Amino acid sequence: MSGLLLENKSTVIYGGGGAIGGAVARVFAREGARVFIAGRTQAKLDAVARDIEAEGGVVETAQVDVFDQGAVEKHADVVAETAGGIDVALNAVSVMHDQGTLLADLSLDEFMRPIDGFLRTLFITSKAVARHMGGERPGVILTLSEPGAKLAVGGILGHSVSAAGKEAFSRVLAAELAPSNIRVIGIRPHAVVDAPAVGSYTKDLFAQVAAGAGQSVQEFLEGGLAQGTLLKRLPTLNEIAETAAFLASDRARTITGTIANLSAGALVD
């Protein structure tokens, strides 16, 4: 067995210019994958590509609107033709949403924004890549959710429903695609402690809640959310990326239809 987890694998990361998507792309490339990163902002994709190329990795970028089904399917077709198929895909697309507003003050649009946004792009990207996976060339589709899928706390209605929806989507899709030799696995990290430092939308996401507690976002992450976990810490971007690389590899070939809990014990399944 090769020492590289993803040697000769073709991998597609949607939202590849973001904090989590970029971290996963770098680790995938280090582990021998040919990485295709797609997203809306070319400058962010280019920054990730430079890091990968500086370490000798293979990467290609594409500016793609992941809410445009036709554009995503066209991109997946190009990737598959270029690489001879698609082995691994990750949807790391972020959708800004409300956290901290209770039902009485929450508008319908604010409630629906993460539900429609996250699930729409997850459907579009999964359908586009699944056509190019499976058979003798096993495939892996990775998804991302959050502890809000199971937490019972106020102020996260839309966020919680969207996270639960992503996890349900992953489980059902795993059942559908298993006969085609495609695994589907969800990854559920808690809020990422070092994400604000690399320009993630985490800072804006938690700004309202942190301000209500009289804290900066970083203080809220480290002193609030982290202390609510069993390990008294939050995951890092690299820890999420390393987990994704393992789950995408043949060493995890019996894992499907489940959620990898990276909440540091905020949730105990």
From TrEMBL:
Recorded GO MF terms: oxidoreductase activity
Keyword Nucleotide-binding part of the UniProt annotation: no
Keyword Oxidoreductase assigned: yes
Keywords: Oxidoreductase
PANTHER family reported in the protein's UniProt record: 5-KETO-D-GLUCONATE 5-REDUCTASE (PTHR43669), ALCOHOL DEHYDROGENASE, PUTATIVE (AFU_ORTHOLOGUE AFUA_3G03445)-RELATED (PTHR43669:SF3)
Similarity comment: Belongs to the short-chain dehydrogenases/reductases (SDR) family.
Protein name: Short-chain dehydrogenase
Native species: Phytohabitans houttuyneae
